[in-house]
Amino acid sequence: MYLTPQHILLAGATGLTGEHLLDRLLSEPTVSRVLAPSRRPLAEHPHLENPVGELLELLPRLEGPINTAFCCLGTTIRQAGSQEAFRAVDHDLVLAFAERAREMGARHLLVISALGADAKSAVFYNRVKGEMEQALKAQDWPQLTIARPSLLLGPRSQFRLGERLAAPLMRWVPGKLRGIEATVLARALWRLALEEDDGVRTVESDQLRRLGR
Predict the structure, then answer these.
(1) Cα dist. 119→39, 82, 128, 203 in Å?
(2) Distance between CA atoms of 18 and 182, rounded to whole angstroms?
(3) What is the CA radius of gyration of the chain?
(4) Domain locations in the chain?
(5) HSE-up of residue 201 (Cα within 13 Å, Cβ side)
(6) CB contact at 8 A, 106 and 136
(7) What Pfam families does the database record attribute to this sequence (predicted)?
(8) pTM
(9) Domain 7-207: which topology?
(10) Within 10 Å of residue 79's Cβ, how many Cβ atoms?
């Protein structure tokens, strides 16, 4: 069976994957509304609603109904400026978004986590991602899809030296460690949104690549 998402809530529409996902959503004839709050204005589209401002401030003012929510939020410790600021985005803001989406009627949440996410990891980045996953599971979603991509490949508006240096190598490493193009991840997320499969599903990077071909 397949669920046809008609009313979509999207966080992170100005990010690398979020931009590609937004384009796909707006091109789908089955999608009648995309609600995509963002810090900066998005290009206008008949099916797009784009409240502009800080997401945490916008969340209480968003209006449903919504049946599917995509969370493409994410930063780096370097970009955020500190571990605390990183956690505020990749953990706290993700949970706040998910909670509001559920209040608006969403039954399926699809969230981008990361390869190696583990709440018990000694690596801070992986530990925060794992704790975020655990907290989302505790929200008791009817359907929760956790995507764990490897290094995301594609042109970013913000320069990230580490990713720029690693990208050529990550295109050739085997299995789920291999980098994944943001366009491929966006296609995979949309395909996963169409699948009706109650409960929690965790999708690793190699499977995301196959789904997004």
Answers:
(1) 30, 19, 7, 17
(2) 9
(3) 16
(4) 7-207
(5) 16
(6) no
(7) HIM1 (PF08732)
(8) 0.88
(9) Rossmann fold (3.40.50)
(10) 13
